[in-house]
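Sample 1 of the test manifest.
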Amino acid sequence: MASTGGGAPGTYTPTPTKKTQRSSFFSDSDVDWLRPDGRGFHQCRPAFFRTGAVNSAAGSAYAEFGNTKVIVSVFGPRESKKAMVYSDVGRLNCNVSCTTFATPVRGLGSDNKEFSSMLHKALEGDLPVVISCASLALADAGIMMYDLVAGVSVSCLGRNLIIDPILEEENFQDGSLMITCMPSRYEVTQLSITGEWSTAKLNEAMQLCLDACSKLDKIMRACLKEAASASLD
Amino acid sequence: MVGLSLGEKHFIQGGIDQNLRSDGRKRDAYRPISIETGVIPQANGSARIRIGATEVIASVKAELGRPNALQPDKGKVAIFVDCSPVAEPMFEGRGGEELSTELSVALQCCLLGGKSGAGAGIDLSSLIVAEGKICWDLYIDGLVISSDGNLLDALGAAIKAALSNTGIPRVQVAAGASGDEQPEVDISDEEFLQFDTSGVPVIVTLTKVGRHYIVDATSEEESQMSSAVSVSISRKGHICGLSKRGSAGLDPSVISDMISVARHISEQLINKLDSEISAAEADEDEM
């Protein structure tokens, strides 16, 4: 079992944008505003990945971003029972479940499972983590992919952009942007934006996310490599 | 589902490459749009919109409710979309559920703004009746009657038209309710407050087929898409939401390019919708 794989918690904080921009950031009226966990605005939570978290699955991964903890397992590939005719494409079925104790209010995720939109809302902040972890689990299952997919979100609070927001920050956000991308191909696979954005801010946020994605990708790759070399020994 | 032969696929893709699509449109042209308002008498506001063969109805219902404890100074808005089996046999039973959810989530993302309410098309603080006690809950329902592509743009436009058709009864709050008591209200059935819809954004979906992207794709064209980006843009040209569909990845520079194209197209669409909506309202008043 390749369960010994894993990497030391690494962080994928993007390189700070130009110094001039930085200084204008902190001359704002809300300088003294601190993030609840003491991070800088452009600082991500340390990310920890490990593959082989579930024994019975074909592939699985565990991800821990601060207090957000996710396990993804992949089953299959197997023959489709639904398909009536020959198809040259496969299908990926995704299912997300939330434990009842996952949110501050008990059972927010699972009670409303029928209302996928609610679940979507509840998951908003965790979605990039789930996506990154899922791509790692797929890789662990040995399923061929174009590239690993890494996801990062940014919240807009007032005039500030804060990366990798926690739930508490998201409740007060004016807007959010989530990007998932394939860093080696430099392609965006999913992008969703809420709230009002000007073009300049949008570009800044996208760059920030893409930079963080490519760093996150390195951590994910290191985790896979470590797992592979451990299973060889 | 659209079944196309290889020849038809080539015809569609080739036409898009040459900027002359199967129905004679250019890549950035919409099909004819027609709007009818006040189609559902039981609702506070409603509209039916046709874009080519795509037809959707949106209705707005307002009910008195309690504001969220976290946001005592704001009303609530919920958007639901239903895909009628009338539109496509595939929507029978639970078949339309996945698409309905996808559309509802995209509309919420495009119209409701951030968590704090910033950038929302609908001013939530205008829905408050008594702070922390009574507010209006708006239920926006979209119904897909006939589906020939570009459902999201059509639903967005229908919601915009339905909201400008919406009248919310004036409410008198009886003074004297103290503390946690729920005050008594008197809902007027004569006086209605009109909704300010100038801030409601429009949704422009750009569908990427081959190397080019097109607006207002028909379902045949949608079956050939690699990905689609829906941008909601306010009159001021600000981005109010964005969602992406389709499995293919996009280069970040292509996305920025698509956003600027969408912004350019949204100006024409907003003007077009505004004139159609006011014409529809005038028609309704005459009857």
